[in-house]
Design a protein that fits this description.
With 637 residues, the protein is an alpha+beta fold. The protein is built from 13 helices and 31 strands. Strands 5, 6, 7, 8, 9, 14 and 15 form a 7-stranded antiparallel beta sheet that branches. Strands 12-13-11-16-18-19-20 form a 7-stranded parallel beta sheet, with helices on both faces. The radius of gyration is 27 Å and the shape is globular.
Length: 637
Protein backbone atom coordinates (compact mmCIF):
# COMPACT_ATOMS: atom_id res chain seq x y z
CA UNK A 1 0.00 0.00 0.00
CA UNK A 2 1.11 3.51 -0.71
CA UNK A 3 0.03 5.55 2.33
CA UNK A 4 0.82 4.97 6.04
CA UNK A 5 -2.79 5.65 6.99
CA UNK A 6 -3.94 2.72 4.91
CA UNK A 7 -1.52 0.37 6.64
CA UNK A 8 -3.33 1.20 9.86
CA UNK A 9 -6.69 0.55 8.24
CA UNK A 10 -5.70 -3.10 7.75
CA UNK A 11 -6.26 -3.61 11.45
CA UNK A 12 -9.68 -1.95 11.62
CA UNK A 13 -12.93 -3.84 11.43
CA UNK A 14 -14.70 -4.48 8.16
CA UNK A 15 -17.55 -2.31 9.43
CA UNK A 16 -15.38 0.77 9.11
CA UNK A 17 -14.42 -0.24 5.58
CA UNK A 18 -18.09 -0.30 4.60
CA UNK A 19 -18.28 3.43 5.29
CA UNK A 20 -16.44 4.07 2.01
CA UNK A 21 -18.70 6.01 -0.34
CA UNK A 22 -19.49 4.20 -3.61
CA UNK A 23 -17.93 6.07 -6.54
CA UNK A 24 -19.53 4.31 -9.52
CA UNK A 25 -23.00 4.41 -10.97
CA UNK A 26 -24.55 3.24 -14.22
CA UNK A 27 -25.84 6.70 -15.21
CA UNK A 28 -22.35 8.10 -15.86
CA UNK A 29 -21.49 9.34 -19.35
CA UNK A 30 -18.78 6.69 -19.75
CA UNK A 31 -21.02 3.73 -18.83
CA UNK A 32 -21.47 2.73 -22.47
CA UNK A 33 -17.71 2.10 -22.68
CA UNK A 34 -17.58 -0.31 -19.74
CA UNK A 35 -16.36 -3.87 -20.36
CA UNK A 36 -18.28 -5.54 -17.55
CA UNK A 37 -16.70 -8.96 -18.16
CA UNK A 38 -13.46 -8.29 -16.26
CA UNK A 39 -12.03 -6.16 -13.47
CA UNK A 40 -8.60 -5.14 -12.14
CA UNK A 41 -7.84 -5.83 -8.46
CA UNK A 42 -4.74 -4.66 -6.60
CA UNK A 43 -4.11 -6.32 -3.24
CA UNK A 44 -1.99 -5.27 -0.31
CA UNK A 45 1.61 -6.16 -1.23
CA UNK A 46 2.03 -8.38 1.84
CA UNK A 47 -0.52 -10.95 0.60
CA UNK A 48 0.53 -13.98 -1.41
CA UNK A 49 -1.39 -15.28 -4.41
CA UNK A 50 -3.11 -18.04 -2.43
CA UNK A 51 -4.50 -15.54 0.07
CA UNK A 52 -5.73 -13.28 -2.73
CA UNK A 53 -7.53 -16.16 -4.43
CA UNK A 54 -9.14 -17.08 -1.14
CA UNK A 55 -10.55 -13.57 -0.75
CA UNK A 56 -11.92 -13.47 -4.28
CA UNK A 57 -13.52 -16.91 -4.00
CA UNK A 58 -16.10 -15.39 -1.63
CA UNK A 59 -17.55 -13.20 -4.39
CA UNK A 60 -20.30 -15.00 -6.31
CA UNK A 61 -20.18 -12.38 -9.08
CA UNK A 62 -16.59 -13.41 -9.95
CA UNK A 63 -15.65 -16.39 -12.10
CA UNK A 64 -13.09 -18.80 -10.68
CA UNK A 65 -10.58 -17.70 -13.35
CA UNK A 66 -8.22 -15.06 -11.93
CA UNK A 67 -5.02 -14.06 -13.70
CA UNK A 68 -2.12 -12.45 -11.77
CA UNK A 69 0.23 -10.14 -13.66
CA UNK A 70 3.89 -9.86 -12.60
CA UNK A 71 3.91 -6.15 -13.49
CA UNK A 72 1.99 -4.13 -12.63
CA UNK A 73 1.22 -6.42 -9.68
CA UNK A 74 -2.53 -6.77 -10.14
CA UNK A 75 -5.08 -9.52 -10.65
CA UNK A 76 -7.45 -9.60 -13.60
CA UNK A 77 -10.67 -11.39 -12.67
CA UNK A 78 -13.43 -12.52 -15.01
CA UNK A 79 -16.91 -11.52 -13.86
CA UNK A 80 -20.41 -12.94 -14.20
CA UNK A 81 -21.86 -9.48 -14.73
CA UNK A 82 -21.08 -9.50 -18.49
CA UNK A 83 -22.97 -6.52 -20.01
CA UNK A 84 -24.81 -5.57 -16.83
CA UNK A 85 -23.03 -2.34 -15.97
CA UNK A 86 -25.10 -1.69 -12.86
CA UNK A 87 -24.21 -5.13 -11.43
CA UNK A 88 -20.59 -4.55 -12.45
CA UNK A 89 -20.41 -1.27 -10.51
CA UNK A 90 -22.08 -2.94 -7.53
CA UNK A 91 -19.37 -5.64 -7.62
CA UNK A 92 -16.61 -2.99 -7.69
CA UNK A 93 -18.13 -1.15 -4.73
CA UNK A 94 -18.24 -4.41 -2.74
CA UNK A 95 -14.65 -5.27 -3.64
CA UNK A 96 -13.56 -1.87 -2.35
CA UNK A 97 -15.03 -2.77 1.04
CA UNK A 98 -12.37 -5.46 1.49
CA UNK A 99 -9.57 -4.15 3.67
CA UNK A 100 -6.88 -6.21 1.93
CA UNK A 101 -7.75 -4.71 -1.49
CA UNK A 102 -6.00 -1.40 -2.24
CA UNK A 103 -7.56 -0.56 -5.58
CA UNK A 104 -10.24 -1.82 -7.98
CA UNK A 105 -10.03 -0.71 -11.62
CA UNK A 106 -12.54 -0.59 -14.43
CA UNK A 107 -12.16 -2.37 -17.72
CA UNK A 108 -13.25 -0.37 -20.77
CA UNK A 109 -13.75 -1.12 -24.47
CA UNK A 110 -13.43 1.07 -27.56
CA UNK A 111 -16.58 -0.15 -29.29
CA UNK A 112 -14.58 -2.23 -31.78
CA UNK A 113 -13.67 -5.24 -29.66
CA UNK A 114 -10.50 -3.93 -27.97
CA UNK A 115 -10.54 -3.79 -24.16
CA UNK A 116 -8.16 -2.06 -21.76
CA UNK A 117 -7.94 -1.41 -18.03
CA UNK A 118 -7.80 1.75 -15.93
CA UNK A 119 -4.93 1.68 -13.44
CA UNK A 120 -4.60 3.69 -10.22
CA UNK A 121 -2.43 6.50 -11.56
CA UNK A 122 -3.33 9.70 -13.47
CA UNK A 123 -0.90 11.75 -15.59
CA UNK A 124 -1.30 15.49 -16.17
CA UNK A 125 0.79 17.72 -18.45
CA UNK A 126 0.72 21.36 -17.41
CA UNK A 127 0.28 24.21 -19.87
CA UNK A 128 2.15 26.52 -17.51
CA UNK A 129 3.88 26.06 -14.17
CA UNK A 130 1.34 28.25 -12.34
CA UNK A 131 -1.36 25.63 -12.94
CA UNK A 132 0.32 23.24 -10.51
CA UNK A 133 -1.37 24.99 -7.56
CA UNK A 134 -4.81 24.37 -9.07
CA UNK A 135 -3.92 20.73 -9.73
CA UNK A 136 -2.72 20.19 -6.15
CA UNK A 137 -5.90 21.80 -4.78
CA UNK A 138 -8.13 19.60 -6.94
CA UNK A 139 -6.46 16.32 -6.05
CA UNK A 140 -6.33 17.18 -2.32
CA UNK A 141 -10.08 17.72 -2.38
CA UNK A 142 -10.38 14.21 -3.79
CA UNK A 143 -8.38 12.81 -0.89
CA UNK A 144 -5.23 12.17 -2.94
CA UNK A 145 -1.58 12.81 -2.14
CA UNK A 146 0.48 15.61 -3.70
CA UNK A 147 1.28 15.11 -7.42
CA UNK A 148 4.84 14.10 -8.28
CA UNK A 149 6.94 14.98 -11.33
CA UNK A 150 7.21 12.38 -14.08
CA UNK A 151 10.91 11.48 -14.23
CA UNK A 152 11.25 11.86 -18.02
CA UNK A 153 9.40 15.18 -18.43
CA UNK A 154 9.29 17.89 -15.72
CA UNK A 155 6.08 19.40 -17.14
CA UNK A 156 4.17 16.15 -16.52
CA UNK A 157 2.87 15.24 -13.06
CA UNK A 158 1.26 12.08 -11.76
CA UNK A 159 -0.64 11.02 -8.68
CA UNK A 160 -1.98 7.72 -7.37
CA UNK A 161 -5.61 7.07 -6.46
CA UNK A 162 -6.66 4.36 -4.05
CA UNK A 163 -10.07 3.33 -2.79
CA UNK A 164 -9.93 5.89 0.05
CA UNK A 165 -10.26 8.77 -2.42
CA UNK A 166 -13.72 10.04 -3.27
CA UNK A 167 -13.22 9.77 -7.03
CA UNK A 168 -11.92 7.01 -9.27
CA UNK A 169 -9.15 7.71 -11.86
CA UNK A 170 -11.37 7.98 -14.94
CA UNK A 171 -13.87 10.35 -13.29
CA UNK A 172 -11.12 12.57 -11.86
CA UNK A 173 -9.29 12.66 -15.19
CA UNK A 174 -12.48 13.78 -16.94
CA UNK A 175 -13.04 16.49 -14.30
CA UNK A 176 -9.50 17.82 -14.83
CA UNK A 177 -9.96 17.77 -18.60
CA UNK A 178 -13.12 19.87 -18.25
CA UNK A 179 -11.13 22.61 -16.49
CA UNK A 180 -9.21 23.19 -19.77
CA UNK A 181 -6.06 24.04 -17.82
CA UNK A 182 -3.85 21.20 -19.02
CA UNK A 183 -2.18 19.94 -22.18
CA UNK A 184 -3.54 16.48 -21.43
CA UNK A 185 -4.95 14.42 -18.59
CA UNK A 186 -5.36 10.67 -18.66
CA UNK A 187 -5.24 7.61 -16.43
CA UNK A 188 -2.55 4.98 -16.79
CA UNK A 189 -3.99 2.37 -19.16
CA UNK A 190 -3.44 -1.38 -18.85
CA UNK A 191 -2.92 -2.38 -22.48
CA UNK A 192 -2.44 -5.36 -24.78
CA UNK A 193 -0.31 -4.01 -27.67
CA UNK A 194 -1.09 -5.46 -31.08
CA UNK A 195 2.11 -7.16 -32.27
CA UNK A 196 2.32 -7.38 -36.03
CA UNK A 197 4.08 -10.67 -36.79
CA UNK A 198 3.00 -13.90 -38.55
CA UNK A 199 5.39 -16.30 -38.44
CA UNK A 200 25.36 -19.55 -42.95
CA UNK A 201 21.49 -18.11 -44.54
CA UNK A 202 22.44 -14.91 -46.40
CA UNK A 203 21.36 -16.53 -49.69
CA UNK A 204 17.82 -16.79 -48.33
CA UNK A 205 17.51 -13.11 -47.44
CA UNK A 206 15.47 -11.95 -50.43
CA UNK A 207 14.93 -8.51 -48.89
CA UNK A 208 18.66 -7.85 -49.33
CA UNK A 209 19.02 -9.30 -52.84
CA UNK A 210 16.18 -11.19 -54.56
CA UNK A 211 17.24 -13.64 -57.28
CA UNK A 212 13.81 -15.28 -57.63
CA UNK A 213 15.15 -18.73 -56.71
CA UNK A 214 13.17 -21.46 -54.92
CA UNK A 215 15.32 -20.79 -51.83
CA UNK A 216 13.84 -17.28 -51.89
CA UNK A 217 10.24 -18.47 -52.29
CA UNK A 218 10.14 -18.09 -56.10
CA UNK A 219 9.76 -14.35 -56.02
CA UNK A 220 10.47 -11.74 -58.67
CA UNK A 221 14.20 -11.12 -59.33
CA UNK A 222 15.10 -7.61 -58.21
CA UNK A 223 12.07 -7.27 -55.90
CA UNK A 224 14.32 -6.28 -52.99
CA UNK A 225 15.63 -3.15 -51.27
CA UNK A 226 18.94 -3.02 -53.22
CA UNK A 227 20.85 -3.48 -49.97
CA UNK A 228 23.96 -5.01 -51.54
CA UNK A 229 24.26 -1.91 -53.71
CA UNK A 230 23.92 0.28 -50.62
CA UNK A 231 26.71 -1.73 -48.99
CA UNK A 232 29.12 -0.42 -51.65
CA UNK A 233 28.68 2.89 -49.83
CA UNK A 234 28.35 1.82 -46.20
CA UNK A 235 27.45 -1.14 -44.01
CA UNK A 236 26.80 1.09 -41.06
CA UNK A 237 28.59 2.93 -38.31
CA UNK A 238 28.91 1.75 -34.67
CA UNK A 239 28.08 5.27 -33.55
CA UNK A 240 24.57 4.91 -34.99
CA UNK A 241 22.22 3.25 -32.49
CA UNK A 242 18.84 1.67 -33.30
CA UNK A 243 16.51 0.97 -30.38
CA UNK A 244 14.43 -2.20 -30.83
CA UNK A 245 11.28 -1.35 -28.87
CA UNK A 246 9.69 -4.72 -28.20
CA UNK A 247 9.42 -7.62 -25.73
CA UNK A 248 13.20 -7.89 -25.40
CA UNK A 249 16.21 -9.00 -27.47
CA UNK A 250 18.33 -12.11 -26.89
CA UNK A 251 21.62 -10.21 -26.90
CA UNK A 252 23.55 -13.44 -26.18
CA UNK A 253 22.88 -14.58 -29.76
CA UNK A 254 26.22 -15.05 -31.59
CA UNK A 255 24.96 -12.96 -34.51
CA UNK A 256 24.45 -10.03 -32.12
CA UNK A 257 27.80 -10.35 -30.36
CA UNK A 258 29.38 -6.90 -30.26
CA UNK A 259 26.29 -5.37 -31.89
CA UNK A 260 24.30 -4.44 -28.80
CA UNK A 261 24.52 -1.94 -25.98
CA UNK A 262 23.06 -2.35 -22.46
CA UNK A 263 19.29 -2.46 -22.63
CA UNK A 264 16.41 -1.44 -20.39
CA UNK A 265 13.37 -3.29 -19.04
CA UNK A 266 10.64 -0.68 -18.66
CA UNK A 267 8.22 -3.37 -17.41
CA UNK A 268 10.07 -3.42 -14.09
CA UNK A 269 10.97 -7.10 -14.27
CA UNK A 270 14.71 -6.41 -14.25
CA UNK A 271 15.70 -8.24 -17.44
CA UNK A 272 17.97 -5.42 -18.73
CA UNK A 273 16.23 -5.70 -22.09
CA UNK A 274 16.30 -9.50 -22.47
CA UNK A 275 13.08 -11.36 -23.35
CA UNK A 276 11.30 -13.90 -21.20
CA UNK A 277 12.38 -17.26 -22.71
CA UNK A 278 9.10 -19.05 -22.02
CA UNK A 279 6.90 -18.31 -25.00
CA UNK A 280 7.29 -18.58 -28.75
CA UNK A 281 6.24 -14.96 -29.17
CA UNK A 282 9.12 -13.73 -27.01
CA UNK A 283 11.41 -14.26 -30.02
CA UNK A 284 9.71 -11.30 -31.69
CA UNK A 285 12.18 -8.62 -30.58
CA UNK A 286 15.19 -10.81 -31.36
CA UNK A 287 13.90 -11.40 -34.90
CA UNK A 288 13.44 -7.63 -35.39
CA UNK A 289 16.95 -6.91 -34.06
CA UNK A 290 18.47 -9.48 -36.43
CA UNK A 291 16.84 -7.82 -39.45
CA UNK A 292 18.39 -4.50 -38.47
CA UNK A 293 21.92 -5.28 -37.35
CA UNK A 294 22.90 -8.97 -37.23
CA UNK A 295 26.69 -9.14 -37.59
CA UNK A 296 28.08 -9.73 -41.09
CA UNK A 297 31.10 -11.82 -42.08
CA UNK A 298 31.31 -13.67 -38.75
CA UNK A 299 30.57 -17.22 -39.95
CA UNK A 300 27.13 -17.11 -38.32
CA UNK A 301 23.76 -17.28 -40.11
CA UNK A 302 22.72 -13.93 -41.55
CA UNK A 303 23.57 -10.28 -41.99
CA UNK A 304 21.44 -7.39 -40.86
CA UNK A 305 20.62 -4.48 -43.15
CA UNK A 306 23.07 -2.29 -41.19
CA UNK A 307 25.52 -4.87 -39.77
CA UNK A 308 28.04 -2.31 -38.52
CA UNK A 309 25.48 -0.32 -36.51
CA UNK A 310 24.55 -0.93 -32.88
CA UNK A 311 21.22 -1.94 -31.38
CA UNK A 312 19.80 -1.40 -27.92
CA UNK A 313 16.80 -3.24 -26.48
CA UNK A 314 13.95 -1.27 -24.92
CA UNK A 315 11.66 -3.89 -23.37
CA UNK A 316 8.22 -2.24 -23.30
CA UNK A 317 5.81 -5.19 -23.12
CA UNK A 318 5.91 -8.82 -22.09
CA UNK A 319 3.93 -11.95 -22.92
CA UNK A 320 1.77 -13.96 -20.54
CA UNK A 321 -0.28 -17.11 -21.10
CA UNK A 322 -3.91 -16.63 -20.11
CA UNK A 323 -5.22 -19.88 -21.65
CA UNK A 324 -4.92 -22.18 -18.67
CA UNK A 325 -6.91 -19.73 -16.57
CA UNK A 326 -9.84 -19.90 -18.93
CA UNK A 327 -9.49 -16.46 -20.48
CA UNK A 328 -9.30 -18.07 -23.92
CA UNK A 329 -6.89 -15.44 -25.26
CA UNK A 330 -3.72 -17.55 -25.33
CA UNK A 331 -0.29 -15.93 -25.06
CA UNK A 332 -0.81 -12.17 -25.34
CA UNK A 333 1.34 -9.09 -24.66
CA UNK A 334 0.75 -6.83 -21.64
CA UNK A 335 1.90 -3.29 -20.95
CA UNK A 336 0.69 0.04 -19.61
CA UNK A 337 0.81 3.49 -21.13
CA UNK A 338 3.37 4.43 -18.44
CA UNK A 339 5.63 1.49 -19.37
CA UNK A 340 5.43 2.33 -23.09
CA UNK A 341 6.23 6.00 -22.44
CA UNK A 342 9.09 5.14 -20.06
CA UNK A 343 10.74 2.93 -22.69
CA UNK A 344 10.37 5.52 -25.47
CA UNK A 345 11.79 8.30 -23.29
CA UNK A 346 14.62 6.11 -22.03
CA UNK A 347 15.60 5.21 -25.61
CA UNK A 348 16.15 8.79 -26.75
CA UNK A 349 17.21 10.39 -23.45
CA UNK A 350 19.38 7.74 -21.80
CA UNK A 351 20.39 5.32 -24.58
CA UNK A 352 20.69 8.24 -27.04
CA UNK A 353 19.22 6.10 -29.82
CA UNK A 354 19.17 7.69 -33.27
CA UNK A 355 16.33 5.46 -34.51
CA UNK A 356 13.49 3.60 -32.81
CA UNK A 357 11.89 0.52 -34.41
CA UNK A 358 8.41 -0.33 -33.09
CA UNK A 359 6.74 -3.47 -34.43
CA UNK A 360 3.49 -2.97 -32.52
CA UNK A 361 0.49 -0.66 -32.49
CA UNK A 362 -2.82 0.16 -30.81
CA UNK A 363 -6.32 0.98 -31.98
CA UNK A 364 -8.00 4.16 -30.79
CA UNK A 365 -8.96 3.75 -27.15
CA UNK A 366 -11.63 6.41 -26.69
CA UNK A 367 -13.45 8.15 -29.50
CA UNK A 368 -15.05 10.68 -27.15
CA UNK A 369 -14.95 11.55 -23.42
CA UNK A 370 -12.54 14.39 -24.14
CA UNK A 371 -9.40 12.26 -24.47
CA UNK A 372 -7.18 13.57 -27.32
CA UNK A 373 -8.06 11.63 -30.49
CA UNK A 374 -8.45 8.45 -28.47
CA UNK A 375 -4.70 7.89 -28.14
CA UNK A 376 -2.65 7.46 -24.94
CA UNK A 377 -1.36 11.03 -24.65
CA UNK A 378 1.53 10.08 -22.34
CA UNK A 379 2.91 7.78 -25.05
CA UNK A 380 2.27 10.36 -27.75
CA UNK A 381 4.12 12.98 -25.70
CA UNK A 382 7.16 10.70 -25.42
CA UNK A 383 7.20 10.11 -29.17
CA UNK A 384 6.84 13.81 -29.91
CA UNK A 385 9.69 14.64 -27.53
CA UNK A 386 11.86 11.96 -29.16
CA UNK A 387 11.09 13.30 -32.63
CA UNK A 388 11.82 16.93 -31.75
CA UNK A 389 14.57 16.64 -29.11
CA UNK A 390 16.35 13.34 -29.83
CA UNK A 391 19.80 13.27 -31.46
CA UNK A 392 20.70 16.54 -29.70
CA UNK A 393 17.78 18.37 -31.25
CA UNK A 394 17.99 16.85 -34.74
CA UNK A 395 15.22 14.37 -33.94
CA UNK A 396 14.99 10.62 -33.45
CA UNK A 397 13.59 8.65 -36.42
CA UNK A 398 10.48 6.66 -35.40
CA UNK A 399 9.36 3.64 -37.42
CA UNK A 400 6.16 1.65 -36.77
CA UNK A 401 4.59 -1.39 -38.39
CA UNK A 402 1.28 -0.45 -40.02
CA UNK A 403 -0.57 -3.57 -38.79
CA UNK A 404 -1.76 -6.88 -40.23
CA UNK A 405 -5.53 -6.44 -40.17
CA UNK A 406 -6.09 -5.06 -43.69
CA UNK A 407 -7.36 -1.83 -42.12
CA UNK A 408 -5.96 1.69 -41.93
CA UNK A 409 -2.52 1.96 -40.25
CA UNK A 410 -2.56 1.59 -36.48
CA UNK A 411 -1.58 4.31 -34.02
CA UNK A 412 1.14 5.51 -33.33
CA UNK A 413 2.45 4.80 -36.85
CA UNK A 414 -0.13 7.04 -38.46
CA UNK A 415 0.88 10.08 -36.35
CA UNK A 416 2.76 12.97 -37.91
CA UNK A 417 5.99 12.28 -36.00
CA UNK A 418 6.06 8.57 -36.91
CA UNK A 419 6.62 6.59 -40.11
CA UNK A 420 4.21 3.76 -40.89
CA UNK A 421 5.53 0.77 -42.87
CA UNK A 422 3.40 -1.74 -44.81
CA UNK A 423 4.71 -5.17 -45.83
CA UNK A 424 5.63 -6.17 -49.38
CA UNK A 425 5.89 -9.66 -50.83
CA UNK A 426 8.88 -11.10 -52.67
CA UNK A 427 7.04 -10.11 -55.87
CA UNK A 428 6.97 -6.38 -55.00
CA UNK A 429 3.29 -6.32 -54.05
CA UNK A 430 1.60 -4.87 -51.02
CA UNK A 431 0.88 -7.89 -48.81
CA UNK A 432 -2.65 -9.27 -49.22
CA UNK A 433 -4.10 -12.80 -49.24
CA UNK A 434 -3.79 -12.62 -53.05
CA UNK A 435 -0.07 -11.73 -53.14
CA UNK A 436 2.34 -14.30 -54.57
CA UNK A 437 3.25 -15.76 -51.16
CA UNK A 438 -0.36 -16.99 -50.68
CA UNK A 439 -0.27 -16.32 -46.92
CA UNK A 440 -3.68 -15.39 -45.56
CA UNK A 441 -3.21 -11.94 -44.07
CA UNK A 442 -3.12 -8.36 -45.27
CA UNK A 443 -0.99 -5.39 -44.26
CA UNK A 444 -2.71 -2.20 -43.13
CA UNK A 445 -2.80 0.47 -45.80
CA UNK A 446 -4.37 3.80 -46.68
CA UNK A 447 -4.20 7.28 -45.23
CA UNK A 448 -0.98 8.16 -43.35
CA UNK A 449 0.95 5.15 -44.70
CA UNK A 450 4.54 6.14 -45.56
CA UNK A 451 6.07 3.26 -47.54
CA UNK A 452 6.45 -0.49 -47.88
CA UNK A 453 9.32 -2.86 -47.09
CA UNK A 454 9.76 -6.66 -47.28
CA UNK A 455 7.59 -8.44 -44.73
CA UNK A 456 7.04 -12.04 -45.88
CA UNK A 457 9.16 -15.13 -45.08
CA UNK A 458 12.07 -13.09 -43.76
CA UNK A 459 15.13 -15.04 -42.59
CA UNK A 460 16.35 -13.66 -39.29
CA UNK A 461 17.43 -14.49 -35.73
CA UNK A 462 15.52 -16.61 -33.27
CA UNK A 463 16.09 -16.94 -29.55
CA UNK A 464 18.84 -19.40 -28.67
CA UNK A 465 18.19 -23.11 -28.13
CA UNK A 466 14.62 -24.34 -28.51
CA UNK A 467 12.88 -21.16 -27.39
CA UNK A 468 11.13 -19.01 -29.95
CA UNK A 469 9.73 -19.49 -33.43
CA UNK A 470 11.82 -22.55 -34.38
CA UNK A 471 13.92 -25.31 -32.82
CA UNK A 472 17.16 -23.61 -33.90
CA UNK A 473 18.80 -20.20 -33.55
CA UNK A 474 17.31 -18.83 -36.80
CA UNK A 475 13.89 -18.63 -38.37
CA UNK A 476 13.21 -18.52 -42.12
CA UNK A 477 9.57 -17.46 -41.97
CA UNK A 478 9.36 -14.34 -39.83
CA UNK A 479 6.75 -12.08 -41.33
CA UNK A 480 4.15 -9.38 -40.97
CA UNK A 481 4.55 -5.64 -40.90
CA UNK A 482 6.61 -6.48 -37.79
CA UNK A 483 9.33 -7.54 -40.26
CA UNK A 484 8.76 -4.62 -42.63
CA UNK A 485 9.34 -2.06 -39.87
CA UNK A 486 12.91 -3.15 -38.91
CA UNK A 487 13.77 -3.50 -42.61
CA UNK A 488 12.93 0.19 -43.00
CA UNK A 489 14.73 1.10 -39.76
CA UNK A 490 17.84 -0.74 -40.97
CA UNK A 491 17.91 1.30 -44.16
CA UNK A 492 17.58 4.49 -42.11
CA UNK A 493 20.58 3.33 -40.07
CA UNK A 494 22.61 3.10 -43.28
CA UNK A 495 21.49 6.61 -44.21
CA UNK A 496 22.64 8.07 -40.90
CA UNK A 497 25.89 6.12 -41.19
CA UNK A 498 26.56 7.77 -44.55
CA UNK A 499 25.68 11.24 -43.25
CA UNK A 500 24.43 11.83 -39.68
CA UNK A 501 24.03 15.60 -39.93
CA UNK A 502 20.42 16.14 -40.98
CA UNK A 503 17.17 16.65 -39.12
CA UNK A 504 14.76 13.71 -38.81
CA UNK A 505 12.40 15.34 -41.32
CA UNK A 506 15.16 15.43 -43.92
CA UNK A 507 15.80 11.68 -43.64
CA UNK A 508 12.08 11.07 -43.87
CA UNK A 509 11.96 13.11 -47.06
CA UNK A 510 14.97 11.35 -48.59
CA UNK A 511 13.65 7.90 -47.71
CA UNK A 512 10.26 8.75 -49.20
CA UNK A 513 11.55 10.33 -52.41
CA UNK A 514 13.96 7.46 -53.08
CA UNK A 515 11.30 4.70 -52.98
CA UNK A 516 10.60 2.52 -56.04
CA UNK A 517 7.07 2.85 -57.43
CA UNK A 518 6.41 -0.89 -57.58
CA UNK A 519 3.33 -3.10 -57.67
CA UNK A 520 1.56 -1.48 -60.60
CA UNK A 521 -0.41 0.79 -58.26
CA UNK A 522 -1.65 4.23 -59.17
CA UNK A 523 0.85 6.65 -57.63
CA UNK A 524 -1.24 9.67 -58.55
CA UNK A 525 -1.93 11.30 -55.18
CA UNK A 526 0.15 14.44 -54.61
CA UNK A 527 1.89 14.25 -51.22
CA UNK A 528 4.62 16.30 -49.48
CA UNK A 529 7.44 14.08 -50.79
CA UNK A 530 6.16 13.19 -54.24
CA UNK A 531 3.52 10.91 -55.70
CA UNK A 532 1.75 8.52 -53.32
CA UNK A 533 -0.63 5.57 -53.43
CA UNK A 534 -2.79 4.01 -50.67
CA UNK A 535 -1.28 0.52 -50.99
CA UNK A 536 2.41 1.38 -50.50
CA UNK A 537 2.56 5.09 -49.76
CA UNK A 538 5.60 6.51 -51.57
CA UNK A 539 6.57 3.01 -52.72
CA UNK A 540 8.89 0.19 -51.68
CA UNK A 541 12.07 1.36 -49.95
CA UNK A 542 15.28 1.38 -52.02
CA UNK A 543 18.31 1.30 -49.71
CA UNK A 544 20.87 2.23 -52.36
CA UNK A 545 18.98 5.29 -53.59
CA UNK A 546 18.17 6.35 -50.03
CA UNK A 547 21.79 6.11 -48.88
CA UNK A 548 23.13 7.72 -52.05
CA UNK A 549 20.75 10.65 -51.63
CA UNK A 550 22.18 11.49 -48.22
CA UNK A 551 25.67 12.08 -49.64
CA UNK A 552 24.80 15.13 -51.67
CA UNK A 553 21.71 16.55 -50.00
CA UNK A 554 21.43 20.16 -48.86
CA UNK A 555 18.62 20.21 -46.34
CA UNK A 556 16.07 23.02 -46.31
CA UNK A 557 14.75 21.85 -42.93
CA UNK A 558 17.68 23.05 -40.85
CA UNK A 559 20.33 25.80 -40.66
CA UNK A 560 23.67 24.90 -42.27
CA UNK A 561 26.71 26.71 -40.92
CA UNK A 562 28.87 25.37 -43.73
CA UNK A 563 29.30 26.89 -47.15
CA UNK A 564 26.62 25.61 -49.53
CA UNK A 565 28.61 23.49 -51.97
CA UNK A 566 27.01 21.17 -54.47
CA UNK A 567 29.00 18.30 -55.99
CA UNK A 568 27.96 15.74 -58.57
CA UNK A 569 27.76 12.93 -59.59
CA UNK A 570 27.93 11.01 -56.33
CA UNK A 571 28.80 8.11 -56.46
CA UNK A 572 31.36 9.11 -59.05
CA UNK A 573 33.34 7.05 -61.61
CA UNK A 574 35.70 9.48 -63.39
CA UNK A 575 35.10 13.24 -62.94
CA UNK A 576 33.65 15.03 -59.90
CA UNK A 577 32.14 18.50 -60.46
CA UNK A 578 31.70 21.34 -57.93
CA UNK A 579 29.60 24.44 -57.52
CA UNK A 580 29.90 26.82 -54.58
CA UNK A 581 27.60 29.84 -54.78
CA UNK A 582 28.44 30.06 -58.48
CA UNK A 583 32.19 30.17 -57.80
CA UNK A 584 34.98 27.60 -58.27
CA UNK A 585 36.30 25.75 -55.23
CA UNK A 586 39.64 27.24 -54.19
CA UNK A 587 41.11 24.27 -52.28
CA UNK A 588 40.22 20.57 -52.08
CA UNK A 589 41.73 17.82 -49.92
CA UNK A 590 40.66 14.18 -50.35
CA UNK A 591 40.95 11.74 -47.44
CA UNK A 592 40.38 8.02 -47.20
CA UNK A 593 37.74 6.80 -44.76
CA UNK A 594 40.48 6.09 -42.20
CA UNK A 595 41.66 9.72 -42.34
CA UNK A 596 44.77 9.35 -44.54
CA UNK A 597 45.32 12.17 -47.04
CA UNK A 598 45.05 10.96 -50.66
CA UNK A 599 45.44 14.18 -52.65
CA UNK A 600 45.41 17.96 -52.29
CA UNK A 601 44.46 20.64 -54.86
CA UNK A 602 44.99 24.39 -54.27
CA UNK A 603 44.19 25.71 -57.75
CA UNK A 604 40.62 27.08 -58.11
CA UNK A 605 38.64 24.43 -59.95
CA UNK A 606 35.15 23.31 -60.89
CA UNK A 607 36.04 19.62 -61.23
CA UNK A 608 38.66 17.01 -60.36
CA UNK A 609 39.46 13.55 -61.72
CA UNK A 610 39.03 10.53 -59.46
CA UNK A 611 40.29 7.94 -61.99
CA UNK A 612 43.31 7.13 -59.82
CA UNK A 613 41.23 6.42 -56.71
CA UNK A 614 40.19 2.87 -55.85
CA UNK A 615 36.54 2.01 -55.18
CA UNK A 616 35.49 3.18 -51.73
CA UNK A 617 34.31 6.01 -49.50
CA UNK A 618 36.27 9.27 -49.25
CA UNK A 619 35.96 12.58 -47.42
CA UNK A 620 36.46 15.91 -49.20
CA UNK A 621 37.49 19.05 -47.32
CA UNK A 622 36.81 22.08 -49.51
CA UNK A 623 37.46 25.81 -49.13
CA UNK A 624 35.49 28.64 -50.67
CA UNK A 625 36.87 32.01 -49.57
CA UNK A 626 37.29 31.88 -45.80
CA UNK A 627 34.73 29.13 -45.31
CA UNK A 628 35.19 25.35 -45.25
CA UNK A 629 32.85 22.46 -46.00
CA UNK A 630 33.19 18.68 -45.63
CA UNK A 631 31.36 16.18 -47.86
CA UNK A 632 31.45 12.41 -48.27
CA UNK A 633 31.75 10.82 -51.73
CA UNK A 634 31.72 7.27 -53.07
CA UNK A 635 34.08 6.29 -55.88
CA UNK A 636 33.10 3.37 -58.13
CA UNK A 637 35.05 1.53 -60.81
Amino acid sequence: MRFPLLFALLFLSSALAKAITPKYDASSNYASYIDASQVIIQFDASLNEEACRSILSKFEALEKHVFFLPTPKVAIAKTKTQNDVEAYFSLINKLEEVLEIDYVGLYMHNGEGYSFGIMDKVFVKLKQAADLDFLESTVHQAGISTPEKYSFNPSIYHFTIDKASNKHPLALAMELIASNKYEFVEPNYLLNPIVHDSDPFLFQQWAIENDGSPEQWDGTPGADMSVTDAWTITKGDPNIVVAVMDSGVDMAHPDLYGQSRPGFDATGQGSSGYPNPRFRSDAHGTACAGIIAAKADNNHGISGIAPDCQIVSGRMFYYADTTFLGFGLGVIPFSTSEILADAINWAWQIAEADIQSHSWGLPNLFLSLGFPEGNPALVDDGLQQAFTQGRNGKGCLLFFSSGNEGDVPNWPGRDAHSMSVNATSMCDEAKTPDSCDSLDWSGNWGINLDFGAPGVNITTLDMLDTFGFSSGDYTMRFGGTSAACPNAAGVAALMLSANPNFQALSYRELLSRSCDKVGGYSYTTAAPYGSWCPELGYGRINAYEAVRSTLNFVSTEEPDNETVIRLWPNPVVEELYFEGNGKPIEEVSIYQADGRLVSHHETPTTSISVKDLTTGVYWLRMRLGEEWAVRKIVVLD
